[in-house]
Amino acid sequence: MNTKPSLQNPGKEFPMFDKKGVFWFLGLTFGLTYLIDLVIYLRGGLTGPGWYNAIWLTGMMPAFSAILLGLFILPGSPIYYRRPAGRGRWFYYFFLLYTVIIAIGVIGIWLVPSDQMIELVTIAPQLVMVAGLLLLVVLRFAAGREAMARVWLSGGSWRCWLLFGLAYVAFFVLQTALNALFSLGPSEMVLSPAPQGFNPILYMILNAGGTVLLASVLTIVNLFGEEYGWRGYLQSELFKLGRVRGVLLLGVIWGVYHWPVILMGWNYPGYPLLGLALMVLDCTASGIVLSYAVLKSGSVLLAAFLHAVGNIIMSPIVEMGFMPYDRVFTFFNGIYGIATLIVIAFFILRDPIWREKGCNLPQSAPVDMAVSGNSAAVEKAAAQAKLGTTL
C-alpha cells in the first residue's frame, strides 16, 4: 500500500491519496447520474412519467459506483473480492442487485408509462429495501460487530444516533418556527384530528415523530446509496488531503452532483442559476455535519439515517401547513436556513477531531496478487491492515 510518514508522528504512516481511484469513482458516478438526468429532461423533466423513480435511481449511483469499483477494481478497498472480508460483504452484492432492480423498473416506466407500472415500480423496490435492512441486522449478528466494522458497516454508538438524530429534528423544528416567526410561510399550524381523550398537540408530536423515525429507519438502505459513496469512499480518500480541506471539497462535489435536477426546478423552482450556488453551499454545510457524525461514530449507516431524517421530516411539516412561500428566501434549505447551517458548521469545525489525520473508517492494505490464492498469506495481509483503528 502506498503510504507517507506522518510529520507529527514520524513512526506512523498514512495511506496516500488514490488519485486514480477517485478519478474513476467521480467519472462513473457523474457519468451515470448525468445520463439519467438527461433522460429525465428529455422525457418532460420533473413532470414526465416516472421522474421521481428516476431521481431515486440517481441517488443510488454514488454507492453503486463505489461498490462496483471497491469489489472488483480497487485492491485497497475493504470489500475487494479477493480479500477475506467475511459475510459483511454480502450486503454490497445485495445493494448492487437492489440498484439493478430499481434501474429495470425505471426503464419499464419509460417503455410503458402507465399508472399501474409506476405503482409497481414504486412498491417493489420498497419491499426490497426493507429486505436489505433486515439483511443488515442478520449480518450484524451472524458476522459480529468487528467484522461489520471492517467492511464499513459499523452501527456505531447508540448515543451518537440519539444525539445526532435529536439535533437534526431540533434543527428542522427551529427552521419551521423561524419561518412562521418571520412570516416566510403560513404561521397557523394545521393539526390532524386526535383520538378522543388525546391532547391534539401531543398527538401531533407523537404521530409526526413516529412517522419520521420509522420512515427514516426503513429508508437507511436507500440513503446508503448516496452516503456510502460520499461519506464512505470519497470522504476516506479526500480526508488524506486534510480533513477540513477534504470535507469542503467533498461538499462542493456533492452540490455539483445535484446541478442537473436543480436546473430542472428541483429544490429551488424559479431560481435555476441561483439554485446552483445555493445547492453547493447547502451540501457543503450539510456535508460537514454528516461527516462529523461519521467521524464521531465511525458509522456510514448513521449518515444514511440522518440524511433520511432530513428528507422525511419535511413531509409532516408540510402536512401541518409550513411550506415556505418562496423556496430561496426562507429557512430550511433557503438562504436563511443555509446561513444558519453555516454557523453550525463553523462551530463543528472547531472540534479538535478535524485536526487529526486520515479518516476513522478502517483503512485496508491492498491484497498482493502473487499471494491472493494463498489463504494464509491473504489472512496475514489483512491482519497487517490495522483494521478498526482511528487514523
Order of strands side by side in the largest beta sheet?
1-2
Helix and strand composition category: mainly alpha
Tell me the series of helices and strands, N- to C-terminal. EEHHHHHHHHHHHHHHHH
Percent helix, as a range, is: 55-70%
- How many helices? 16
Strand content: under 5%
Q: How would you describe the shape?
A: globular
Give a count of the beta strands, DSSP E runs of length 2 or more. Answer: 2
Distance between the termini: 15 Å
Q: List unreliable stretches of 5+ residues.
A: 5-12, 368-391
Question: Could you explain how this protein is built, in words?
Answer:
By secondary structure, the chain is an all-alpha fold. It is 64% helix and 2% strand. It has helices at residues 19-42, 51-58, 61-72, 90-111, 115-143, 145-150, 158-181, 200-218, 220-238, 243-257, 259-263, 272-297, 300-312, 314-319, 335-348, 375-383, and strands at residues 3-5, 13-15. Strand 1 and strand 2 (13-15) form a beta hairpin. The longest helix is centred in the N-terminal third of the chain and has 29 residues, at 115-143.
Keywords:
391 residues, mainly alpha, 2 domains, two-stranded antiparallel sheet, 16 helices, disordered C terminus
Brief digest:
This protein has 391 residues and is an all-alpha fold. The protein is 64% helix and 2% strand.
Please outline the helices and strands.
Layout: E1 3-5, E2 13-15, H1 19-42, H2 51-58, H3 61-72, H4 90-111, H5 115-143, H6 145-150, H7 158-181, H8 200-218, H9 220-238, H10 243-257, H11 259-263, H12 272-297, H13 300-312, H14 314-319, H15 335-348, H16 375-383
Antiparallel strand pairs: 1-2
Helix pairs in contact: 1-2, 1-3, 2-4, 3-4, 3-9, 4-5, 7-13, 8-13, 9-10, 9-13, 10-12, 12-13, 12-15
